[in-house]
Predict the 3D structure of the following.
Amino acid sequence: MLRTRVRAGTGAILVLSLVFAILFSALGSFDLVVSSWAPRFAEPTSVALRVPFGSRIVQMGDGETSHIAYEPARMIIPPYTVLDESLASHREAFAYESMRRPPRLLRIGALFVIYAALSLMLAAYIQRLGQNRLRLLRTQIGVFALILLMMGVTKAILLFTGLPEFWSPVAAVPLWIALAFDRRSALLINIVMAFLAASLLRFDLMFLAIALVRGMTVILFLLNRRKPRSLLLTGVLAGLASALLYVALATVLEGGFDAVRDLGRLEGSYLLSCVGGGALAGLVTSVLRDPVERILGHVPRDKLLDLTDIEHPLLKKLAGEAPGTWEHSRAMANLAEGAAAAIGADALLTRVGAYFHDLGKTVQPSYFVENQGKEPSPHDDLAPEVSADAIMAHVVLGTKILREGGIPEPVVEFAYTHHGTQVVEYFWHKYQEQNEEPELTKDHFRYPGMKPQTKETAILMLVDSIEAASRTVSPPSKDGFEDMIRRVVFTKLKAGQLDHSNLSMEDLHILTDRMSTALVNMYHGRIKYPWQRQQERKPAQSFTTPHPSEVKPLSEPPPEPPPEPRPKASPEAPPEASPEPPPEASPDPPPEASPEPPPEASPEPSEEVTEASPAAPAHA
Ligand SMILES: [Fe+2]
Ligand SMILES: [Fe+2]
């Protein structure tokens, strides 16, 4: 039984949300149950005491001249500060902490409801509208774990430092999501992150607004995904944007903002913390990108580059045991990598996927046309249903071999999605022809795989068919290739194989154009050498007796094949040697120009070719 990736269902989403709501609630309130952390006068505090921003009624002046006024205030008493009862700020912080301790069950219950609602909203949104890879249960667990980790970091900053809360690098989470998936999902995760972070400080409005804006800005400013320096710059720009917002908010809520006084506080400066928090988010995103990608179920680039090494034991096995399949995989890799890059998909992952996708063919290589050579096909002696089973087995066996070989799951995914849930048409039709009253249904000839869930795996599915069908296009013109690719794409669309791939119509247009151009360049016309043209005409000459008057003596020995192609008639071919006019550049490639025979030359159908039926009807 083939084990494919698990998409998060409604039940899983519910359980996941509740589990994380419990963990978030515990993280939000655990410090209030640690009795040794409770503040006491005349003793140093164990953790920082923070009074969230808000307007308070204060008494101004003394005696008869005193009056009551509103004063916006925010207070941070760093850890290890000896609480002085004579100071109003210490008394206020002490009063606020005493009010919170010990936490009431009702308060924890209310927090749990808020966290559960946020988690459910996030999980449900991702499941219904998020990118396909985000809908996998494994990825959703990774996303929630990442949010929990960042919440833990924010909580640690709030508890164990006296720094302003804006130093928290919460914006790193939406940035990681934008890098690994898409900006739309990152935007939603940013909203949830901002609320969760603010909840650690009694839903502080300033903290919420800064976290929200900084997260949105990093998503918008994210320009170059590859360069770490660009990520840092993105963070700094977001920090500057949040500093601007802070000044505006402070002016609205507090009636003004004294920048000089704020900057004079250095590590306590809110402006610096806004910019610093943004820069820290960019730095953390860049430095921890690889481990975070692992948490999110991605393969780090270094690992992918390792897998492109043709000395990898599994690739050596493929090249040694199924050389035809290895050449097919390499041809696909070039085509698929260019196509993926053209639509902004992960080109390197697609290349690696192409290398490994058919590894299951190493178990019985002779069942596949590209490995048969001149040997008789084993399918000659098999019933069509048995042949279909043998063909389809390479998906399951390939998945098994790759998993046992420690290949990362996103690469293994190419093995069980590159045929999707298509039918092995050739043997299905053969079976119908041989059995007037068929016992088996079409589903018995259906691949036991999964429809492509990502753009990368969908590209490989298309390229698998296109690479095989491209050899049947004659002449190899751009129009011919475009027509063939459109037919392949249409067939896959019609069969519903691209339904979960996230490929847009625009992507398909770009892919068609990019792949047809690549194929024209792969199969571009070669100039025939004079000796090749002579060889082509030899059979006709052997049946023609020339008139004695037409026979000319050879002035030179027959020419040797030239080492290099020439754009014009070769001087090595003297006119006397050939009765034909001098050869000109030919648009047709010589048969030898192709490293692989055209599918028509094959006595057996290829499972790839059978699925490229619109372009290769002879095999379908
Ligand atoms: Fe395959
Ligand atoms: Fe293949």
